[in-house]
Amino acid sequence: MRNIDYFKDKEIAVVGLARSGVACANLLSALGAGVSLTDIADNPGIRLALSGLKSKNIKVELGKHSPEFIRGRELIVVSPGVDNSSPALTWAAKFNIPVISEIEVAWLLCPATVIATTGSSGKTTVATLIAEVLEASGRKVFTCGNIGIPFCAQVDKMGPDDFVSLEVSSFQLERISKFKPKIAVMLNFSRNHLDRHKDMREYLEAKKRIFLNQDGNDTLVLNGQDQVLRELAKEAKSRVVYFSGSDGLNPNQAAVLAVGSILGIDRDTCLEVFSGFKGLEHRLEYVTQVNNVKFINDSKATTAESTAWALSNISSPVVLIAGGRDKGVDYRGILDLARKKVKEVVLIGEAKEKIRDSFKCYLLLDEAQTMPEAVNKAFQKAAPGECVLLSPMCSSFDMFKDYEERGRAFKDAVYNLARDKA
C-alpha cells in the first residue's frame, strides 16, 4: 500500500456501521489509528455487522450519535448510507473536522490502477464486465466499491501492477478530496436519488466529482448519446473518449469496449467475454418456472430506466412486482412500455401510493404487504407462458437491508410457491 503512515496515530471516527464502515474501521485500526465507530441504528443487522470488527480497541456507539464521539477527532470517515443531515456531520462541521468517504481512504492507500464507473444505471454490470475483460487479458483485478465489496476491504491485497474495477455512487463521491481514477466512466444520467439530493443539479454535481481531480494523463469515458454527459466534456481536464451502443453492442458493452481499447485489450477478447457473460444475481435473473409461469428477479432495478430495460428484454406478458422506498423517481417514465408489456402490477413498500397515482389510469393495480403475498398474488394473475417480474424501481430500505436481501426474499417466496404447487 501507499502512504501507510498517513493514518498512523490519528484519532478517527467512522460514521456508519455498514459493510464499508466496518471494513474502513478494520483497515484504519490495522494502520495504527485510534478508531471510533458510531451508528444511529441498533438492530440485529447492525449487530451482525459489528461481529466483523477485528480489534477490541475500536470504540463503538450504537443507537445514537453523540458529540463525544466526534469532538477531538482529527478526521471523520463517512459511510455512503449516511445522509448529509446526520448530526455527526453537523458536529464535524462545528468542530472543523475534515470529512472524507471510505473510497477516499482506500484511494490514498491504493497502489493499483483504478478504473471507476458511475451512472444512474448499469454500474454494476459494467464494473463486472471491465473486471472480466481485464482478467481475460491476463491482468490481476479487484472488483469492489458500491458493487458490494468495500474498497477498504481489498486495498491491502493490491500491488502496483494490479487493477481495480470500482463501482462508485453519487453518495461515495460527495466526500472525496484527492480521489483520482486513471479511467473514469460515466454511463448515463437520469432522475434518481432525489430522496438524498435536493434536485437534479445537485445529483449531477455529485456525479461529476468522479473526474474532479483527473488531469491530462487520465481518461474520462462518456456516453456520447447522453446530451447531459456530452456537455461535461467541456469541464474535463482529462482526455475524453466517447462510447455509444452500436454494431450489435448495447451501451454497457460499448462502454467496456472503450475501456478495453484504452488499456490495449483487443476487441475479440472483449467480445468473447460478452458472449460468455451469464449476468448478475438480482439483475434480470431467471429463478424458475411454476406451472409454466416464469419468475425473474430484477431486485437491483431501483430506477424507472432499469425497469424499462428489463421489460424491453422480456418478450412475454408481465405481472410486475414494484415498490419500496421512493428515491424521487418519475414512475411515469415506463408507462408507454408498461402499457404494451405489463398485464398487472402488484405494489409493495412505502412508495405504493405514489406509484399507484402514476399508474392508476393506465394499468391494473393490486398491492401486498409482504414479499410472499406479492409473489402469490402475482402468480394468481399470471397465465401459463407469462412472466412474474420483480423490478421495484425503488430502493429496498423500507422492508429490507439492501436489494440483495430483497432479491433473496423474492427467490425464497418463489421456491416455496414451487414446492406448494409440486
User: How many strands?
Assistant: 17
How many domains would you count in the coordinates? 3
Class based on secondary structure composition and strand pairing: alpha/beta
Q: End-to-end distance, in Å?
A: 55 Å
Q: Which percent bin holds the helix content?
A: 25-40%
Could you tell me the radius of gyration in angstroms? 22 Å
Please state the average pLDDT score.
93
Q: In what range is the share of β-strand residues?
A: 15-25%
Uncertain residue ranges: none
How would you characterize the largest beta sheet? 6 strands, parallel
Level-2 CATH architecture of the largest domain:
3-Layer(aba) Sandwich
- What name does CATH use for the topology of the largest domain? UDP-N-acetylmuramoyl-L-alanine:D-glutamate ligase
CATH class value of the largest domain? Alpha Beta
What is the strand arrangement across the widest sheet? 7-8-6-9-10-11
For this structure, what is the CATH homologous superfamily of the largest domain? Mur-like, catalytic domain
- Count of runs of 4 or more consecutive helical residues: 16
Shape: globular
Descriptive notes:
The structure is a single chain. By secondary structure, the protein is α/β, with parallel strands linked by helices. The protein folds into three domains: 11-97, 3-Layer(aba) Sandwich (Rossmann fold); 104-276, Mur-like, catalytic domain (UDP-N-acetylmuramoyl-L-alanine:D-glutamate ligase, 3-Layer(aba) Sandwich), CATH 3.40.1190; 285-421, Protein-Tyrosine Phosphatase, Chain A. It is 35% helix and 19% strand. The protein contains 16 helices and 17 strands. The protein has helices at residues 19-30, 44-50, 87-94, 102-109, 123-136, 151-154, 170-173, 200-208, 227-232, 251-262, 267-276, 304-312, 335-341, 352-359, 371-381, 403-421; strands spanning 11-15, 34-39, 59-62, 75-78, 99-101, 113-118, 141-145, 163-167, 183-186, 219-223, 239-243, 285-290, 293-297, 318-322, 342-347, 365-367, 387-390. The strands form three sheets. Strands 7-8-6-9-10-11 form a six-stranded parallel sheet. The protein has a six-stranded mixed sheet with strand order 12-13-17-14-15-16, with helices on both faces. Strand 15 (342-347), helix 14 and strand 16 form a beta-alpha-beta unit. Helix 5 (123-136) packs across helix 10 (251-262) and helix 15 packs across helix 16 (403-421). The termini are far apart.
